[in-house]
Amino acid sequence: MKNTLRPTSIAFAICAAISSLSISANANDTLTKQLKDVEKSVVAWRRDIHQHPELGNRETRTADIAATHLEKLGMQVERNIGYTGVVGILKGDLPGPTVMLRADMDALPVTEKVDLPFASTQTTNYRGVDVGVMHACGHDTHVAMLMGAAEVLAGMKAELHGTVMFVFQPAEEGAPKGEEGGAELMLKEGIFDKHKPDVAFGLHITSGLNTGKIGYRSGPFMASADSFEIAIHGTQTHGSTPWNGVDPISAAAQVVTGVNHIISRQIDITKEPAIVSFGKISGGVRNNIIPEKVEMVGTIRNFDMDNRQQIFDKIKHTATHIAAASGATAEVEINEGYPVTINNPALTEQMLPSLNKVAGEDNVLLLPKITGAEDFSFYALEIPSVFVFLGGTPQGQDASKAPSNHSPYFFADEKALPLGTATLTQLTLDYMASHSANMQ
């Protein structure tokens, strides 16, 4: 959605949020002071983590920074979950629900091209290629903001109606080849068995919105992300005598056409949109040799879990039958990735006033569906959850033209960090206050 709404200063938004919290005057004073006091630390943490990025399942330094910080705040902390994941438990002095807050920690194999005094100079060998390592998706800011919220909420322990579960998660961008990782692995290793939250909140900084803006959507918000591999097996022959073999290239071309018709002709896209895209086709080595095999890979994006399974089934059916009609055979492998990220409608409606209070109503934007994916979706399948986007392009700049997340030129405005810290705090305190009021 194009941003045409008037800006509101971060300081004003935070003060407005603080004044409206359902807590005592003394707690208001404490919150005001702690949010202000933690700002410089959040920026310093972010710069340090940005300068020392780590890839998925290898975030040992970042995880240690987060875990040590939580331990210093007096929390019960568990390390090395799902390789490097950290869980911290803050138990308030008053009874109430358990709220989970999550930040992802991993960087990307991208060489940074932003001129910053704390720019990354880290390099690595990624899948046989020497490349830089960069927080090109802003996860460094997520860790810093959650550390800030942890410090603020720990300072309000006496006023907390419930428990806060801080999750610092590895490998949101995907685990190294041959490894599991991310939210799915942390759940598999039992983080919800030990501490089952009532709700979960998460946020992601984006260059697509200006600083001071928050973007949200109820229901399906971000797409599922799955991949497929299709191998067409024919019979190799000379290009001058195709009748002596089986041409997998011709069969593959027909498979591409057939698979592209699945979305346009076989899926009810009035229910939710979906996308199937081929990203690579390879086969053969010479102009006059019909090869034995052609390989194709692609991606599937979708916003409905039932449609998702239908698409899987139809890709297999279409590829195998078209190949058979040409005398070839097809092997189809569907690699399930991240499910649809779904914001619980009732919880979204409940927490929208909190977003309005912390950012100002004019700065909270209803976003369209996003075909990118997020592994926060795994948590949202287990418990009611809300995931929002935090603007990170400086005010006065055209966010629609800013380098996108994952770009080597991606830039996250540090002026967005106080709003992110305040948002996580606001959501937690308001949900606890509402739950406690309902219990009375």
TrEMBL record:
Record's keyword annotation contains Manganese: yes
Cofactor: Mn(2+)
GO molecular function annotations of the record: hydrolase activity; metal ion binding
Taxonomic superkingdom: Bacteria
Residues where Mn(2+) 1 binds: 173
Family: Belongs to the peptidase M20 family.
Keyword Magnesium: no
Domain Peptidase M20 dimerisation: 227-322
Residues where Mn(2+) 2 binds: 137, 139, 204, 406
InterPro entries: Amidohydrolase, Bact_exopeptidase_dim_dom, Peptidase_M20, Peptidase_M20_dimer
EC number: 3.-.-.-
Pfam (any one): M20_dimer
Keyword annotations: Hydrolase, Manganese, Metal-binding, Signal
Enzyme kind, highest EC tier: hydrolase
Signal sequence interval, chain numbering: 1-27
Protein known as: Putative hydrolase YxeP
Cofactor note: The Mn(2+) ion enhances activity.
NCBIfam families reported for this sequence: amidohydrolases
